[in-house]
Protein backbone atom coordinates (compact mmCIF):
# COMPACT_ATOMS: atom_id res chain seq x y z
CA UNK A 1 0.00 0.00 0.00
CA UNK A 2 1.39 3.42 -0.88
CA UNK A 3 1.91 5.77 2.01
CA UNK A 4 -0.63 8.52 2.49
CA UNK A 5 -0.18 11.88 4.15
CA UNK A 6 -2.31 14.64 5.57
CA UNK A 7 -1.62 18.33 6.00
CA UNK A 8 -3.21 20.09 8.94
CA UNK A 9 -3.60 23.80 8.44
CA UNK A 10 -5.62 26.70 9.75
CA UNK A 11 -4.52 29.16 7.09
CA UNK A 12 -3.19 28.32 3.65
CA UNK A 13 0.04 30.27 3.29
CA UNK A 14 2.49 30.00 0.41
CA UNK A 15 4.21 27.16 2.29
CA UNK A 16 1.07 25.02 2.59
CA UNK A 17 0.22 25.56 -1.09
CA UNK A 18 3.71 24.50 -2.05
CA UNK A 19 3.60 21.38 0.11
CA UNK A 20 0.29 20.38 -1.50
CA UNK A 21 1.77 21.01 -4.99
CA UNK A 22 4.90 19.03 -4.17
CA UNK A 23 2.83 16.02 -3.13
CA UNK A 24 0.79 16.26 -6.32
CA UNK A 25 3.94 16.41 -8.45
CA UNK A 26 5.30 13.31 -6.73
CA UNK A 27 2.00 11.45 -7.09
CA UNK A 28 1.65 11.20 -3.32
CA UNK A 29 -1.80 11.24 -1.75
CA UNK A 30 -1.92 14.15 0.67
CA UNK A 31 -5.16 15.16 2.29
CA UNK A 32 -5.39 18.81 3.37
CA UNK A 33 -7.40 19.12 6.58
CA UNK A 34 -8.65 22.44 7.92
CA UNK A 35 -8.06 22.33 11.66
CA UNK A 36 -10.78 24.92 12.18
CA UNK A 37 -13.35 22.37 11.01
CA UNK A 38 -11.98 19.53 13.06
CA UNK A 39 -13.10 17.95 16.32
CA UNK A 40 -11.44 14.93 17.83
CA UNK A 41 -12.56 12.36 20.34
CA UNK A 42 -9.72 12.13 22.81
CA UNK A 43 -11.10 9.23 24.84
CA UNK A 44 -11.50 6.96 21.85
CA UNK A 45 -7.99 5.97 20.82
CA UNK A 46 -9.02 4.40 17.53
CA UNK A 47 -6.75 5.43 14.66
CA UNK A 48 -8.55 7.76 12.32
CA UNK A 49 -7.77 6.87 8.71
CA UNK A 50 -8.31 10.37 7.33
CA UNK A 51 -4.94 11.47 8.70
CA UNK A 52 -3.01 8.86 6.68
CA UNK A 53 0.32 7.43 7.82
CA UNK A 54 1.88 10.76 8.64
CA UNK A 55 0.26 14.11 9.41
CA UNK A 56 2.19 17.25 8.58
CA UNK A 57 1.03 19.79 11.15
CA UNK A 58 1.30 23.37 9.84
CA UNK A 59 -1.16 25.40 11.92
CA UNK A 60 -0.39 29.09 12.37
CA UNK A 61 -1.85 28.84 15.86
CA UNK A 62 0.85 27.14 17.89
CA UNK A 63 -1.45 25.80 20.59
CA UNK A 64 -4.03 24.53 18.12
CA UNK A 65 -1.31 22.62 16.28
CA UNK A 66 0.28 21.42 19.48
CA UNK A 67 -2.90 19.90 20.91
CA UNK A 68 -3.84 18.32 17.60
CA UNK A 69 -0.39 16.76 17.54
CA UNK A 70 -0.83 15.35 21.04
CA UNK A 71 -4.16 13.81 20.08
CA UNK A 72 -2.98 12.31 16.80
CA UNK A 73 0.08 10.83 18.46
CA UNK A 74 -2.14 9.25 21.11
CA UNK A 75 -4.02 7.55 18.28
CA UNK A 76 -0.77 6.18 16.87
CA UNK A 77 -0.34 8.62 13.99
CA UNK A 78 3.12 10.02 13.23
CA UNK A 79 3.13 13.78 13.21
CA UNK A 80 5.71 16.13 11.75
CA UNK A 81 6.85 17.65 13.96
CA UNK A 82 6.37 15.36 16.97
CA UNK A 83 4.72 16.83 20.07
CA UNK A 84 7.99 16.89 22.01
CA UNK A 85 9.66 19.00 19.30
CA UNK A 86 6.73 21.37 18.79
CA UNK A 87 6.30 21.90 22.54
CA UNK A 88 9.97 22.66 23.06
CA UNK A 89 10.38 24.95 20.07
CA UNK A 90 7.12 26.74 20.85
CA UNK A 91 8.53 27.90 24.17
CA UNK A 92 11.48 30.26 23.95
CA UNK A 93 12.49 29.62 27.55
CA UNK A 94 12.63 25.84 27.15
CA UNK A 95 14.34 26.14 23.79
CA UNK A 96 17.07 28.49 25.09
CA UNK A 97 17.71 26.11 27.99
CA UNK A 98 18.00 23.14 25.68
CA UNK A 99 20.45 24.93 23.38
CA UNK A 100 22.58 26.12 26.30
CA UNK A 101 22.63 22.70 27.89
CA UNK A 102 23.88 21.16 24.64
CA UNK A 103 26.74 23.67 24.53
CA UNK A 104 25.30 25.56 21.56
CA UNK A 105 26.17 29.26 21.74
CA UNK A 106 22.97 31.17 22.44
CA UNK A 107 22.35 34.73 23.70
CA UNK A 108 22.60 35.26 27.45
CA UNK A 109 19.09 35.06 28.86
CA UNK A 110 17.76 35.64 32.37
CA UNK A 111 14.22 34.88 33.46
CA UNK A 112 12.31 36.57 36.29
CA UNK A 113 8.78 36.08 37.55
CA UNK A 114 7.76 39.53 38.74
CA UNK A 115 8.12 43.00 37.28
CA UNK A 116 10.29 44.18 40.17
CA UNK A 117 12.68 41.27 39.86
CA UNK A 118 12.82 41.78 36.08
CA UNK A 119 13.82 45.43 36.71
CA UNK A 120 16.55 44.18 39.03
CA UNK A 121 17.83 41.87 36.29
CA UNK A 122 18.04 44.82 33.89
CA UNK A 123 19.60 47.26 36.35
CA UNK A 124 22.06 44.93 38.02
CA UNK A 125 22.91 42.13 35.61
CA UNK A 126 21.91 42.66 32.01
CA UNK A 127 22.20 46.42 31.55
CA UNK A 128 20.77 48.31 28.59
CA UNK A 129 19.95 47.79 25.82
CA UNK A 130 18.31 44.41 26.38
CA UNK A 131 15.49 42.52 24.73
CA UNK A 132 12.29 41.24 26.31
CA UNK A 133 10.32 38.46 24.65
CA UNK A 134 7.15 36.60 25.44
CA UNK A 135 8.05 32.92 25.86
CA UNK A 136 5.58 32.00 23.12
CA UNK A 137 4.76 33.61 19.78
CA UNK A 138 6.39 34.29 16.47
CA UNK A 139 6.84 36.90 13.73
CA UNK A 140 8.66 39.06 16.27
CA UNK A 141 5.39 39.81 18.03
CA UNK A 142 5.72 41.68 21.36
CA UNK A 143 9.49 41.35 21.26
CA UNK A 144 10.80 44.70 22.41
CA UNK A 145 14.15 46.37 22.77
CA UNK A 146 14.63 47.88 26.23
CA UNK A 147 16.87 50.88 25.69
CA UNK A 148 16.79 52.46 29.14
CA UNK A 149 15.20 52.25 32.56
CA UNK A 150 12.15 54.37 31.63
CA UNK A 151 11.27 52.22 28.62
CA UNK A 152 11.82 49.08 30.64
CA UNK A 153 9.58 50.26 33.47
CA UNK A 154 6.79 51.23 31.08
CA UNK A 155 7.01 47.99 29.15
CA UNK A 156 7.17 45.78 32.21
CA UNK A 157 4.13 47.57 33.64
CA UNK A 158 2.29 46.76 30.42
CA UNK A 159 3.30 43.13 30.69
CA UNK A 160 2.10 43.03 34.28
CA UNK A 161 -1.38 44.08 33.16
CA UNK A 162 -1.67 41.59 30.31
CA UNK A 163 -4.21 38.84 30.84
CA UNK A 164 -2.26 35.80 29.81
CA UNK A 165 -0.08 34.67 32.75
CA UNK A 166 2.68 33.66 30.34
CA UNK A 167 3.36 37.38 29.82
CA UNK A 168 4.48 37.50 33.44
CA UNK A 169 7.30 35.10 32.71
CA UNK A 170 9.87 37.80 32.03
CA UNK A 171 12.35 36.44 29.48
CA UNK A 172 15.14 39.00 29.25
CA UNK A 173 17.94 38.61 26.77
CA UNK A 174 21.12 40.48 26.00
CA UNK A 175 20.79 42.67 22.91
CA UNK A 176 23.12 40.95 20.49
CA UNK A 177 25.33 43.32 18.52
CA UNK A 178 24.80 42.06 15.03
CA UNK A 179 24.56 43.36 11.47
CA UNK A 180 21.00 44.23 10.38
CA UNK A 181 20.37 40.64 9.44
CA UNK A 182 20.17 37.15 10.86
CA UNK A 183 20.52 33.70 9.31
CA UNK A 184 17.53 31.38 8.86
CA UNK A 185 18.31 27.79 7.96
CA UNK A 186 15.59 25.37 6.98
CA UNK A 187 16.47 21.90 8.19
CA UNK A 188 14.58 18.79 7.09
CA UNK A 189 15.47 15.77 9.20
CA UNK A 190 19.25 15.56 9.20
CA UNK A 191 19.66 17.67 6.05
CA UNK A 192 20.06 21.37 5.49
CA UNK A 193 17.57 22.45 2.83
CA UNK A 194 18.44 26.13 2.47
CA UNK A 195 19.95 29.02 4.30
CA UNK A 196 19.18 32.70 3.94
CA UNK A 197 20.20 36.01 5.39
CA UNK A 198 17.14 37.90 6.53
CA UNK A 199 17.67 41.65 6.40
CA UNK A 200 15.38 43.76 8.53
CA UNK A 201 13.03 46.18 6.80
CA UNK A 202 14.20 49.83 6.97
CA UNK A 203 11.62 50.69 9.64
CA UNK A 204 12.18 47.71 11.97
CA UNK A 205 15.04 46.21 13.95
CA UNK A 206 13.68 42.65 13.76
CA UNK A 207 14.61 40.56 10.76
CA UNK A 208 11.44 38.45 10.43
CA UNK A 209 10.25 38.09 6.83
CA UNK A 210 6.72 38.53 8.24
CA UNK A 211 7.82 42.08 9.22
CA UNK A 212 9.01 42.92 5.74
CA UNK A 213 12.51 41.43 6.06
CA UNK A 214 14.30 40.63 2.81
CA UNK A 215 15.90 37.30 1.93
CA UNK A 216 19.30 36.72 0.38
CA UNK A 217 21.18 33.45 -0.16
CA UNK A 218 23.62 32.56 2.58
CA UNK A 219 26.36 29.99 2.02
CA UNK A 220 27.01 28.39 5.36
CA UNK A 221 30.53 27.42 6.35
CA UNK A 222 31.06 23.77 7.24
CA UNK A 223 31.35 24.74 10.93
CA UNK A 224 28.07 26.60 10.84
CA UNK A 225 26.33 23.74 9.03
CA UNK A 226 27.46 21.44 11.78
CA UNK A 227 26.23 23.81 14.49
CA UNK A 228 22.84 24.26 12.83
CA UNK A 229 22.35 20.51 12.41
CA UNK A 230 23.34 19.99 16.02
CA UNK A 231 20.74 22.55 17.13
CA UNK A 232 18.09 20.74 15.10
CA UNK A 233 19.09 17.42 16.58
CA UNK A 234 19.14 18.75 20.12
CA UNK A 235 15.50 19.87 19.95
CA UNK A 236 14.51 16.47 18.60
CA UNK A 237 14.75 16.65 14.76
CA UNK A 238 11.99 17.46 12.29
CA UNK A 239 11.18 20.14 9.77
CA UNK A 240 12.72 23.13 11.49
CA UNK A 241 13.91 26.69 11.10
CA UNK A 242 17.15 27.32 12.93
CA UNK A 243 17.80 31.04 13.45
CA UNK A 244 21.26 32.41 14.11
CA UNK A 245 22.86 35.82 14.60
CA UNK A 246 26.39 36.92 13.79
CA UNK A 247 28.35 38.53 16.61
CA UNK A 248 31.96 39.63 16.92
CA UNK A 249 32.62 36.56 19.04
CA UNK A 250 30.99 34.19 16.57
CA UNK A 251 27.57 32.79 15.83
CA UNK A 252 24.77 32.46 18.35
CA UNK A 253 21.62 30.47 17.74
CA UNK A 254 18.67 32.33 19.24
CA UNK A 255 15.81 30.00 18.40
CA UNK A 256 14.60 26.93 16.59
CA UNK A 257 11.15 27.19 14.99
CA UNK A 258 8.85 24.22 14.68
CA UNK A 259 6.35 25.33 12.02
CA UNK A 260 8.97 26.88 9.82
CA UNK A 261 8.04 29.47 7.21
CA UNK A 262 10.25 29.02 4.17
CA UNK A 263 8.70 31.44 1.68
CA UNK A 264 11.78 33.69 1.94
CA UNK A 265 14.17 30.76 1.52
CA UNK A 266 12.20 29.45 -1.47
CA UNK A 267 12.31 32.84 -3.18
CA UNK A 268 16.10 32.80 -3.37
CA UNK A 269 17.07 29.13 -3.29
CA UNK A 270 16.95 26.56 -6.07
CA UNK A 271 16.31 23.77 -3.59
CA UNK A 272 12.90 22.08 -3.67
CA UNK A 273 12.12 22.57 0.03
CA UNK A 274 8.47 21.37 -0.13
CA UNK A 275 9.62 18.32 -2.10
CA UNK A 276 12.13 17.56 0.64
CA UNK A 277 9.38 17.83 3.25
CA UNK A 278 7.21 15.32 1.34
CA UNK A 279 10.15 12.91 0.98
CA UNK A 280 10.89 13.24 4.69
CA UNK A 281 7.24 12.56 5.57
CA UNK A 282 7.25 9.44 3.38
CA UNK A 283 10.44 8.30 5.03
CA UNK A 284 8.80 8.75 8.46
CA UNK A 285 5.75 6.82 7.22
CA UNK A 286 7.94 3.83 6.43
CA UNK A 287 9.33 3.72 9.99
N1 LIG B 1 18.81 39.13 21.57
C1 LIG B 1 18.62 39.72 20.41
N2 LIG B 1 19.50 40.67 19.94
C2 LIG B 1 19.27 41.29 18.76
N3 LIG B 1 18.24 41.01 17.95
C3 LIG B 1 17.35 40.09 18.34
C4 LIG B 1 17.50 39.40 19.58
N4 LIG B 1 16.49 38.54 19.72
C5 LIG B 1 15.72 38.68 18.63
N5 LIG B 1 16.23 39.61 17.79
C6 LIG B 1 15.62 40.00 16.49
O1 LIG B 1 14.22 39.86 16.60
C7 LIG B 1 13.76 38.83 15.70
C8 LIG B 1 12.65 38.02 16.35
O2 LIG B 1 13.13 37.37 17.51
P1 LIG B 1 12.94 35.83 17.77
O3 LIG B 1 13.54 35.51 19.07
O4 LIG B 1 13.43 35.08 16.59
O5 LIG B 1 11.35 35.68 17.90
P2 LIG B 1 10.20 35.22 16.90
O6 LIG B 1 9.87 33.84 17.33
O7 LIG B 1 9.07 36.13 17.14
O8 LIG B 1 10.75 35.25 15.51
C9 LIG B 1 15.01 38.01 15.39
O9 LIG B 1 14.89 37.36 14.15
C10 LIG B 1 16.08 39.07 15.39
O10 LIG B 1 16.09 39.80 14.19
MG1 LIG C 1 12.45 34.06 15.01
Automatic annotation (TrEMBL):
Gene Ontology biological process: lysine biosynthetic process
Alphabetized UniProt keyword annotations: Amino-acid biosynthesis, ATP-binding, Ligase, Magnesium, Metal-binding, Nucleotide-binding
Any Pfam family: LysX_preATP_grasp
Record flagged with keyword Cytoplasm: no
Coiled-coil intervals, chain numbering: none
Pathway(s) the chain acts in: Amino-acid biosynthesis
Gene3D superfamilies associated with the record: 3.40.50.20, ATP-grasp fold, A domain, ATP-grasp fold, B domain
Ranges where the ATP-grasp domain occurs: 96-282
Cellular component GO terms, alphabetical: cytoplasm
Keyword Nucleotide-binding appears in the UniProt entry: yes
Cofactors, names only: Mg(2+)
GO molecular function, one term: ATP binding
Family assignment from sequence similarity: Belongs to the RimK family. LysX subfamily.
UniProt name for this protein: Lysine biosynthesis protein LysX
Originating organism: Methanosuratincola subterraneus
Amino acid sequence: MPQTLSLLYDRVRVEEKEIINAAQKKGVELRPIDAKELHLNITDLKKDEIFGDVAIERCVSHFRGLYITAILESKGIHVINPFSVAALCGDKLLCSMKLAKAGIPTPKTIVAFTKDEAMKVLEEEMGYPAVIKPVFGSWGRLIAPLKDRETAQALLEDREEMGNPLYQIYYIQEMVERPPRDIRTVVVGDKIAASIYRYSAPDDWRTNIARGGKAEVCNLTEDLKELVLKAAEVVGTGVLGVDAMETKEGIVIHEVNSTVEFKGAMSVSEVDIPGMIIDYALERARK
